């Protein structure tokens, strides 16, 4: 489970530090129970992110079943995807 305050704190941290493996490593240390992924926004085939930021969108991952899927439900979320947006 990820609450809205945690999610916003994570997004704020990534906005301040920049989206990088080092930043995700720091999040992994702080939130050891969660999984963090970095990809390109156009790699995501999901209608709406749970948060939209200037340089990235944020999606939630549900890993309860055999395969991980994206979800909008923070109650079942076990991970966060930061999907980087490139200017067009």
Helix content: 25-40%
Please work out how many helical segments DSSP would assign: 2
The largest β sheet comes out as:
5 strands, mixed
Low-confidence stretches: none
Report the structural category: alpha+beta
Strand element count? 5
Strand content: 25-35%
Overall number of domains:
1
Average of pLDDT:
94
Q: How far do the termini sit from each other?
A: 34 Å
Q: Write down the secondary-structure element order.
A: HHEEEEE
Over all CA atoms, what is the radius of gyration? 12 Å
Shape: globular
What descriptive keywords fit this protein?
single chain, 88 residues, alpha+beta, five-stranded mixed β-sheet, 2 helices, 5 strands, 27% strand
Write the layout of secondary structure elements.
Elements: H1 4-17, H2 21-30, E1 35-40, E2 51-52, E3 56-62, E4 69-71, E5 79-84
Parallel strand pairs: 1-5
Antiparallel strand pairs: 2-3, 3-4, 3-5
Could you explain how this protein is built, in words?
There is one protein chain. This protein is of the alpha+beta class and 88 residues long. The protein has one domain. Strands 1, 2, 3, 4 and 5 form a five-stranded mixed beta sheet that branches. It starts with a helix and ends with a strand. The mean pLDDT is 94.
What's the quick description here?
The chain is of the alpha+beta class and 88 residues long.
């Amino acid at each position: 489970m990820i609450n809205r305050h945690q999610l916003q704190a994570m997004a704020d941290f990534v906005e301040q530090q920049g989206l990088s493996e080092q930043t995700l490593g720091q999040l992994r240390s702080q939130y050891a129970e969660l999984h963090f992924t970095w990809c390109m926004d156009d790699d995501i085939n999901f209608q709406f992110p749970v948060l939209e930021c200037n340089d990235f969108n944020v999606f939630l991952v549900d890993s309860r079943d055999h395969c991980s899927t994206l979800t909008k439900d923070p109650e079942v979320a076990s991970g966060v995807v930061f999907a980087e947006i490139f200017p067009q």
